[in-house]
Specification:
Elements (H helix, E strand, L loop, with lengths): L1 E4 L6 H11 L3 E3 L3 E2 L14 E2 L2 H9 L3 E7 L2 E6 H9 L3 E5 L2 H11 L4 E6 L3 H8 L7 H15 L7 E4 L3 H16 L8 H8 L3
Parallel strand pairs: 1-7, 1-8, 2-7, 3-4, 8-9
Antiparallel strand pairs: 3-6, 5-6
Helix pairs in contact: 1-7
The structure holds guanosine-5'-monophosphate (5GP).
Amino acid sequence: MLILSSPSGAGKTTIARRLLELDPDIAMSVSATTRPMRPGEVDGKDYHFVDRPTFDAMVEANEFYEWAEVFGNCYGTPKAHIRAKLKQGQDTLFDIDWQGTQQLYQKAEADVVRVFILPPSIEELRRRLTGRGTDSEDVISARMARAQAEISHWDGYDYVVVNHDVDDCYTQIAQILAAERLKRARQTGLIGFVRELTRA
Ligand code: 5GP
């Protein structure tokens, strides 16, 4: 379970897309959310868009691995397909916030790798959050405050990558994934293989 967290504007979506495109062995966990769909988003691909009563019923029925309220909207990781994927040995990419990260870590510590992406500077973050120049100063300040609140949780992660350059940042995260896959405990076929090698 590879978790990518970052404040919005740090480049996480680009990195996640690239990982999914280039690595056939990792698939995205599609969360459920109560927030309205943004232009260009696809229901079932970016999120499962649900209304609040539906989300509450899913919480009640214990259908989420983890869920959290983030800036007034609810987000949750549905259990169903994650379990199936883990069983098949399929790696899963999570774009979730620090609250969800803590919950997943508590539930499945050995299976979780936590990566936090930081923007290269406060000026660059502001530039990326300023949008097309149509937002008011208040809206931009609110976005900056949210981003800084998210950044304050950077120390709850195994790896921290500063996104100076999106290509370098992608390469570093792909390297983290490659190294984590090579951990002895994750190479489940190794015992039989080594036994074969050491047979007298
Ligand atoms: P956005 O609305 O911009 O897509 O996401 C807002 C925040 O919610 C991001 O920090 C994102 O990582 C987080 N998020 C998305 N899905 C989930 C989820 O299933 N669980 C949790 N805890 N956070 C999520």
